[in-house]
Every structure is written in C-alpha cells, then in structure tokens.
Amino acid sequence: MKFAVINDLHAQFTPKSHQSGYPGANGRAEWMLGQFAKGGAHDDVDFLIGAGDLIHGEDLKAIRAEMKALRKRLKPLAMPFYPCCGNHEIKQWEGDADYERPYTKAFGKDRFDYAISTESLEIIVLNNAGTYHVTSKRREQRAQRFEQMLKARPGVPKIVICHVPLVSIRDRDVLRGSFGFISYRCLEGELLDLLDTVGGDVRLVVSGHLHLTGMVQRRGVCHLTTAGTASFPHDYAVVDATPDRISVNVRALPKSLHEPASNIHGPPRYEAGYTDADHPKALSYLRGRPGERRFTIKL
Fold first, then answer.
1. How would DSSP label each residue in the chain?
2. Of 54, 149, 245, 298, which has the fewest CB atoms closer than 10 Å, so is most exposed?
3. 188: number of CA atoms within 13 Å, CB side?
4. Where along the chain do its domains lie?
5. 34-52 average pLDDT score
6. What does pTM read for this prediction?
7. What pLDDT, on a 0 to 100 scale, did the predictor assign at position 134?
C-alpha cells in the first residue's frame, strides 16, 4: 500500500479571499494537487490524505468560499481523498456548527474523527485542530473517540494522522519562540497518555501545522511533521507500507517553486533563523536532518 500526506497548502482559490501572506501559495497548491491527478507523478498512490490547513480561511466568509473552491480542485484526483481538519478550516472554532459546516458540506459529517481501514493497516484520523480553544465536553469526546479507535482491531499496526503534533518536534523552548503560537504541540496531555496506555499498535504519527519538517521518536513511536507547501521548505510525505515495514519519504517541491520569504521560522518574520542543539543550522532546523526525512519502521 502506498499513500501520500499533504498539508498546510493555505490555498485561496477564489479572488475574493484575503491575501494569505504566503507568497506563491496558490501556485504551489495547484502543483501539489496536480501530482495526484491522472497522469501526475503520484497518480499511482492508493489514496491521498490532507492533514489540515488546505485553505487559509481568515474568516467565516472566506472559509465558505475557499472550501467550495478547494472541493472543485479535488475532483480531478485519481484516487480517494481523506481530509483531516486543520485550524484554518474552522478558525479554531471546533464544535461550532457554523464554522464546521463548510468542512462537513465538503467532506461529510463523519470526517472529523474516523479510521481508514485496510486489510493490514489501520489509519486513525484525529481532529485536534482546536487544541487549547475547545470546551471540556469536546475535549472529553475527542479522548473517548481516540481511545475507541486505538482499541479497535488489536494487533493491527496503526498510523495516526492529526493536524497539530502530539509532541514537540524541536527543542520545546526554541520551538515555542520560533512558531510564536501556544499550539506548537497539542495541549491535551490525555491523548499522549492514551497513546502510552492503549496505543501499543501505533507506529507512526503524522501531522503538520508547524510549517517545518522533523521527526522525533517517543517511546517507540515516530512522530513526523511535514512543512506543507505554503511555507519554505515546501515538503510533503509519501508512505509505503508492506507487511513487514513502513517506509517514509519526505519530498520537497521543485526548487523553481521555492520561496524563502514564506519561511515563518526566520527572515522576514524574524531577523535571523532559529536553531537548536540537534539542528545547529537554520536550514536543518526547517528541513530536519536526513534521518528525519527518510526512515523505515519495522513491523
């Protein structure tokens, strides 16, 4: 089985939307989706997952227009598409019917917390787009649903897809500063507790949101975040799964589409790029080390 994960396109396929501040984002989004249309470089994948923030969605009016326009761009895909909600799809208003309606109208009401079941692999799609901004009721519902999905099909290897990383992908204090938002990781500790207690079948967690690429291992689980296409370094992931291993390959968009000014962890947003102990250069902080971009998990 082979599938791809794209995220953080921040596309605005409608002229009436606000300008996103990510120069060239629409062009990169068009290129990315084109790779999965018939005749595209990746038209051989079994399915495509969108790990959130596929639109920019500055307000409810923009969310409605951009989601409708995005849905049209998804029609030429040569394979099934599975969405994962991002904060820009709902502007952090998780649980609000008005803000969630454009998403559910495009993809269905059953596409927030759900599973993609295959014969030998279970993929759990978890909606944590509103972390820190959710009611206690929604938080409890999320944890209960996550537990149910983790316990389903015991012994079958599992991959979790969510928008906000469950762990800190860089040094916590450095990442908090470079990202600039409190949601540099999911703020619901009970989800990690569930991963530790009933998530023994989980081998990989894939997320976006941070606009950088990296992978860390925690208690035997690989946590991968990809930069997405809106921000430099413009990455996405391709996953090959066989009965004995999961191979992950993070790929960059062509250099002709790169726009360094779209970087949110360095200039022009900050005077200089960020680094941490494991990533002593600003570019490695953004792209990750080679072992973070290409790795294999034995099953």
1. -EEEEE----B--STTSPP-S-TTHHHHHHHHHHTTBTTSTTTTSSEEEE-S--B---SHHHHHHHHHHHHHHHTTBSS-EEE---HHHHTT-TT-HHHHHHHHHHH-TT-SSEEEE-SS-EEEEE--TTTTSS-HHHHHHHHHHHHHHHHSSTTS-EEEEESS-SS-SS-HHHHHHHH-STTSS---HHHHHHHHHH-TTEEEEEE-SSSS-EEEEETTEEEEE--BSSSTT-EEEEEEEETTEEEEEEEEPPGGG--GGG-SSSTTTSSS---BTTB-SHHHHHH--HHHHEEEEE-
2. 298
3. 27
4. 2-298
5. 97
6. 0.96
7. 84
Place of tokens 């992908």: 169
Residue 25 reports pLDDT greater than 60? yes
Paired strand residues for 37: 77
Amino acid at site 127: N
Tokens 């249309």 -> residue: 37
Looking at the structure, give the CATH architecture of the domain made up of residues 2-298: 4-Layer Sandwich (3.60)
